[in-house]
Design goal:
132 residues; alpha+beta; four-stranded antiparallel β-sheet; 4 helices
Length: 132
Amino acid sequence: MSFTNRFSELWKSDEIKPILRNYMIQWRKDPVILRIDNPTRIDRARSLGYKAKKGFILARIKIKRGGRKREKFKGGRRPKHMRRKKVVGISYQVIAEQRVNKQFKNLSVLNSYFLAKDGRHYFYEVYWLILK
């Protein structure tokens, strides 16, 4: 069995849960968007097109879980129109890509993948390519 197959099976099994729990404790203390050197899930990154060479950059992002409502209106509206509707059509992964893209404007997002979730956050890794 190859390394990537074994690693992907390990990631799906229960053996990774205590290790992942320790990782998440550290990730909660880190900034919201953190640039990292190596992917946490090398199998998933490679399957989505990541290569360990110049020009590919990785970041880990944490997103708060819960009801994703739009921001409260700050204008002069009638109470009838003051409803705050949920953002339904966008997944957490797309939101993660958008937030990373907002911080690093000169880079184009190639792909992202799910890492983990706990009671408060979703964790994703996003990788992108330097535009020339």
